[in-house]
Amino acid sequence: MAALRTTLQWLRPRSAPISQLFANRAYQIPTPSTLRAFTTTPQTLNPNTENDIPNINITNYYTLFPSTLPSGPPPNPETKFDIPLRTLRAEFLSLQNRTHPDKYPPGAPKQKAEALSALLNEAYRTLSDPLARAQYLLKIQHNIDVTAEDSAATDKQALDPETLMAVMEVQERIEELAEEEGSGEEAEKVIEEMKGENRERVEEGVKVLGEMVERGDVEGMRRECVRLRFWYSVGEGLKEWTPGVREIRLVH
Do residue 106 and residue 181 come from a single domain? Predict the structure, then answer.
């Protein structure tokens, strides 16, 4: 046993006293002053000023993103309706990083950054969606607002018979599913098929809408926006469908 204790004592690591360990500068215990130095952020030490806010052309949503959309909005021979979304997102994130309100001190610089950041958010959201993009162009270029409350009834009446019939067929199919006896899995399968059909309608609608925009066909743009709004609404209704639902709510 004595031999075993001797062996264990020999194997035990021999450490220097704590005072000797911290005698080396690399092991100094942090003082309150050094802790404050580590917790102070560069933004606090050197806050940005109003002059640091990027100089961005705010004429319209297109001019906010000059790298992605250098030619401005259509109709323009050098501008297509389609937008490279990955490039747009990269530029948007870069601008948002440079204009983030937290980087600026209170007062005019921060307020300006907040306004610019909000504008960039709205512009990115609008340009990223084909329908919202076309509606925006109608609004700024022709003062036509297809989203206005007073135009909803007119738009529904103006919907072409073919589209109106297709929308009614979707509603009738939903009602039939609610009345049919059978498994929920079968109904869900039908709904998935209807979702696929609606995606195809949306894709075709976006294609036609783009052609109208690039041609500068204002009436065609308005008509296709109205039609596409219905298909968007059908898509949302199908997404929210649950067994037993007799109809989907259309928002136009």
Answer: no
